[in-house]
DNA sequence: TAAATTTGTTAGTATAATAAACAAACTAAT
DNA sequence: ATTAGTTTGTTTATTATACTAACAAATTTA
């Protein structure tokens, strides 16, 4: 039974976490400054800091500048007390990163995927993880967790229920990987992963209510409310790509029709481009990258096509802004490549359609880490999990 | 500065609240049962219960049944320690209720509104509140708060920024009423109020992730996540009536086009009914009530019209289910009157369009308290606020 | 050189939960 | 009727942890 009652351990855990987070975000900082900043007594801070030193989660780095009295002892967060792994499992690639506890990328592994069958992909995935584990420097806590972002529906138990573009169904990925490496594993939807990456390290650092639009082959939305990912009842929140923006519109593979992603995704872009019957372009060479080149060299049809996609992105973004009243919308994933061609159309549509009060103080950005958002996002989630655990478990004895 | 640190008072407040809520929800109950149930030590429970007795928030009602030993002392929540006021400020009515601390309606006041100008309405509103205050029985805490649900955009400071159907703009309603009665006042959007009412006392009792669709003249959505109302950055969340479901669709007064509420609200229903040019029906007599009579007497056109409205309700509900993955959707406000004609169309649309995994375990209901949802909802919010305050302030001395 | 200031530690105090013992009130078995 | 066992609620002693206040060390400033 999970206890809901208050007690001394709870108090200590709250305060120890508070001190650790203060050091994490405000370092270099002294004990006295922490006491001042968070409102804990100097003695309390001293004793919690000493525990954190023992835990090796922080370290002292000699005396700092005096401000007219005894010189303070500078405290720093121990980035390198452990490392975390984040994997972005894409439709035709695997990107793996090893990060330190501050989320800095230490090692990166890229693999192209030519096959999508589970049996093959899982082997490549395991080899990527092995490589990253082997590449990790010696540290006190070792690899603290493995996070994996997946383009599909993931439930609360880490099972991939369905990943349409991979052709996967009902795969207990978490159990599989956890058994293999004996390290805590988190399976996360790719949009959620990206959202968290941008919230912690990217365009969303300053905000706590963020909608991250993952615009790739399909469209998914990562929802961050009050600084935390929102999952819904079973973990399926954010399937905004299947919101209907055109009643009786195009048929969708999901069984519905008129879904947003049929008009505003990479899939939509390529499909419309096909209709233009461009000379010298085959099904193999057709790609966003190519369309961007054409647009950059002045092809009006393609430019208009991007504007149309931008307009339709605006439609869906308008809808979620009116529903959520977020502080920030971040557009991420593959379509960010076309930022220069999309941005104005999106902004224009929002300006002309979204409720005026909802537009006030609203920030619309493109993802900062683009390619890395999802990988560093899941890595960060494992770090959070580890630090929370560290603070509560380590003082249990 | 609001303290974020943990300390003894925090622990006590958590536990005292826990004990109070247990009594509120599980009464009649003994000290021993509480200890067993929440996991607090018997002595701790005893001392907290004694404080709550002193606060008059609970009372003892003599010995209960023995289960083979000393007979327990039965504890009950003191419903009547104070009273709360909830107002539903509609477009053409004011409904006011006085409730006890359990949300039971004690007195009810109804006023028709023929005028909408702020100056007139505010006077009627004040008289309704006065009547309710005067009708309240003598009690230890008196009137603990006044909640007012308003059909418009309300910000975090209790200002009504705009209420289109009332023709109001930038009105500091909270300050006005608070100055008048010197009792804490909460101004709440009508959809949020309804959502909370249904969550606490109605169709949503069992669930913590609920979307309440307030389908009246327009459409608003009250969003309950993890058991709490979600407000967004400025308090404007839930304007789902202005989500676009038809690109380049009908023009909306909000400046956009193709908005959901143009196809699925009471406004849409009446407009479509007008187009049917029904004999013997004037602009004055046209109403949902009348259309229901016609449908009930077998008018095919009207029946089809209701089915069409139901289908369009399904479109928007589909969208928010895919986005939120909620446990429950509750349809409330005026259109609930047409439940019998709408229900099947809505369910059919959801069944055929909404993602299969999102449909699993999903509950779609109509509001239980219909006419009263909003009024008891805001009243309940004031009760919550009062009880929270009571527990933390009363032990501060 | 002395006074003032800042930092970090320590000793004692306060608060609130817990464990354990206990008394009172009751049931059930003999 | 007597006795044993059970349940309830209180009390006492213990424990964990934050807080207050005093203090020493280190440093700047007058």
Please describe what this structure looks like.
- By secondary structure, chain A is of the alpha/beta class.
- Chain A folds into three domains: 8-77, Arc Repressor Mutant, subunit A; 81-195 and 374-391, ATPase, nucleotide binding domain (Nucleotidyltransferase, domain 5), CATH 3.30.420.40; 204-367, 2-Layer Sandwich (Nucleotidyltransferase, domain 5), CATH 3.30.420.40.
- Helices cover 42% and strands 20% of the residues of chain A.
- Chain A has 13 helices and 15 strands.
- The first copy, chain A, has helices at residues 8-26, 31-38, 42-54, 118-135, 173-181, 190-201, 261-264, 266-275, 288-296, 300-324, 339-353, 356-359, 373-394; strands spanning 58-63, 73-77, 83-89, 93-100, 105-112, 143-150, 153-154, 160-163, 168-171, 185-189, 210-215, 219-225, 228-229, 328-332, 363-366.
- In chain A, helix 6 crosses helix 13, helix 9 crosses helix 10 and helix 10 (300-324) packs across helix 11 (339-353).
- The radius of gyration of chain A is 23 Å and the shape is globular.
- The model of chain A has no long low-confidence stretch (mean pLDDT 93).
- The interface between A and B is large, with 67 and 67 residues.
- Chain A binds a DNA duplex (30 and 30 nucleotides) through helix 1, helix 2 and helix 3.
Give a brief outline of the structure:
Two copies of one chain form a homodimer. Chain A has 397 residues and is an alpha/beta fold.
CATH fold topology of the largest domain in chain A = Nucleotidyltransferase, domain 5
How many strands appear in the DSSP assignment of chain A? 15
Number of H/I helices of chain A: 13
Mean pLDDT of chain A: 93
Determine the structural class of chain A based on helices, strands and strand pairing: alpha/beta
CATH architecture of the largest domain in chain A: 2-Layer Sandwich
Return the domain count of chain A: 3
> What is the CATH class name of the largest domain in chain A?
Alpha Beta
Low-confidence stretches of chain A: none
**What is the beta-strand fraction of chain A?**
15-25%
Q: Topology as H/E string of chain A?
A: HHHEEEEEHEEEEHEHEEEHHHHEHHEH
Helix content of chain A: 40-55%
N- to C-terminal distance of chain A: 20 Å
So, the CATH homologous superfamily of the largest domain in chain A? ATPase, nucleotide binding domain
């Amino acid at each position: 039974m999970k206890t809901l009652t208050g007690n001394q351990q709870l108090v200590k855990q709250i305060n120890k976490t508070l001190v650790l987070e203060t050091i994490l975000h405000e370092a270099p900082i002294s004990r006295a400054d922490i006491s001042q900043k968070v409102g804990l007594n100097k003695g309390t801070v001293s004793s919690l800091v000493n525990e954190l030193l023992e835990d090796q989660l922080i370290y002292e780095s000699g005396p700092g500048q005096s401000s007219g009295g005894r010189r303070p002892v500078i405290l720093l967060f121990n980035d390198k007390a452990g490392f975390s792994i984040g994997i972005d499992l894409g439709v035709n690639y695997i990107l793996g990163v090893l990060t330190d506890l501050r989320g800095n990328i230490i090692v990166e592994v890229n693999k192209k995927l030519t096959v999508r069958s589970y049996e093959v992909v899982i082997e490549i995935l395991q080899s990527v993880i092995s490589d990253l584990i082997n590449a990790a420097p010696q540290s006190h806590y070792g690899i603290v967790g493995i996070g994996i972002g997946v383009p599909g529906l993931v439930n609360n138990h880490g099972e991939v229920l369905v990943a349409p573009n991979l052709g996967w169904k009902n795969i207990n990925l978490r159990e599989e990987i956890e058994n293999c490496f004996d390290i805590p594993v988190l399976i996360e939807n790719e949009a959620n992963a990206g959202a968290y990456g941008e919230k912690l390290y990217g365009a969303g650092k300053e905000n706590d209510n963020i909608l991250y639009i993952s615009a790739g082959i399909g469209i998914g939305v990562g929802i961050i409310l009050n600084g935390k990912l929102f999952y819904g009842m079973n973990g399926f929140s954010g399937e905004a790509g299947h919101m209907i923006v055109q009643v009786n519109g195009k048929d969708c593979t999901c069984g519905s029709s008129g879904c947003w992603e049929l008009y505003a995704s990479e899939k939509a872009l390529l499909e419309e481009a096909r209709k233009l019957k461009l000379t010298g372009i085959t099904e193999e060479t057709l790609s966003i990258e190519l369309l961007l080149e054409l647009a950059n060299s002045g092809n009006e049809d393609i430019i208009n096509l991007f504007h149309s996609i931008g307009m339709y992105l605006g439609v869906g973004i308008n809808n979620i802004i009116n529903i959520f009243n977020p502080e920030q919308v971040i557009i991420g994933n593959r379509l960010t490549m076309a930022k220069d061609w999309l941005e104005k159309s999106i902004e224009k549509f929002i300006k002309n359609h979204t409720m005026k009060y909802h537009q006030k103080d609203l920030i619309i950005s493109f993802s900062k880490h683009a390619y890395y958002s999802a990988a560093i996002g899941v890595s960060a989630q494992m770090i959070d999990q580890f630090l929370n655990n560290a603070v509560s478990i380590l003082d249990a004895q």
